[in-house]
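By convention, the token line describes the chain's fold. To illustrate:
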Amino acid sequence: MIRVIFWQGTGGTFTGFTVTGHAGYRPKGEDIVCAAVSALAQTAVLSLKEQLEEEPGVSIQEGVLDCRLPAGLSPAGQEKARVILKTIELGLKAIASDYRQYVAVEYKSRS
């Protein structure tokens, strides 16, 4: 199962996201669920790198993508990050709704 965690700070603002696991919907190379989640997550990282004044912290390993927003973003940077992360949130929640056995989306506070 793929697990997506949206990390939240004070006031519920997103501070990043983590994607872990594999869907297991189909064999590797044929798994449309995994491909869809990966495409959204990677697009978010690329968009954040392009749009923010400082790059997010990104760690990618086998089965894990972790993206943390930089501290001290300007108000404009915070708004850009919010729009990007809300956009992928919508897409990931739609995938999770259609493929409940394979994708879960949750929200946690980052301590």
